[in-house]
Amino acid sequence: MRVLMITPEYPPKVMGSAGWTIHRLVHELARRGVEIYVVCPSDYEEQRAEDSVKVVTASCPIKTQLHVITWAWSLIVSLVRRGAEVLHSLRGKIDLIHAQEWIGLVAASYLKWYSKVPLVATLHSTEAMRGGRTSLISECIYGIERYFISEADIVAASSKDEAESLIRDYGVEPSRIVLIDIERVNTLIDLYRKVSTR
Question: With bands split at pLDDT 50, 70 and 90, how would you rate the model's confidence at 175?
């Protein structure tokens, strides 16, 4: 099975605990035979191998951002560009795309439309969970999450709280949500198999 993982954080460029969780996850998936391509941000672009995980980094062309939303959209464009390069190099032979966080989800949605492969999404926390829709920025991120989460074939929730927020705050049908545990990677592999055979 071949998976394209799109994430806005991955070591050494991490903003919180999600980056380290994703790192552990992809390496465990690779140990279990999943061919993983990670597209993630960096200050420079490269392709490297971490054991059997292939890492392709994307650099934002604009280094100074005045606003988090402009930073996010410029990163999204870079992630889409590098993800499309991976898809092209593999001649489109990929089983599914797994998006991490809202920035990765936007980029992965564009890649899904391009490649016509299934999309799994994980939002380690939602904007509603991070403090609610209390500002224009929060409302903007919430709207982006709400729209693009509808593009995912399955949402792999990393916690019960996240699953409840997706249902309550985003209107995601419970049948589209699967609770995953980083320690139970076989559950995620089974989910990958189920989604990629649709």
Answer: very high
Residue pair 111/155 in contact by the 8 Å Cβ criterion: no
Whether residue 159 is predicted with pLDDT greater than 90 in this model: the reply is: no
Would strands 47-50 and 53-58 be described as parallel, antiparallel, or unpaired?
antiparallel
**Letter string b/e over residues 13-28, b meaning 16 or more CB atoms within 10 A of that residue's CB:** ebeeebbebbbebbbb
DSSP state at residue 13: B
Find out whether 126 and 161 touch, Cβ atoms under 8 Å. no
Which pLDDT score, from 0 to 100, does residue 1 have?
94
Domain limits of the chain? 2-195
Across-strand partners of 198?
none
CATH of domain 2-195: 3.40.50.2000
Closest alpha carbon to 2 in 101, 91, 122, 104: 91
**pLDDT tens by residue, 72-106:** 899 999 999 999 999 999 998 999 999 999 999 99
Burial of 154 by CB count in 10 Å (0-12 exposed, 13-18 middle, 19+ buried)? buried
pLDDT of residue 183: 67
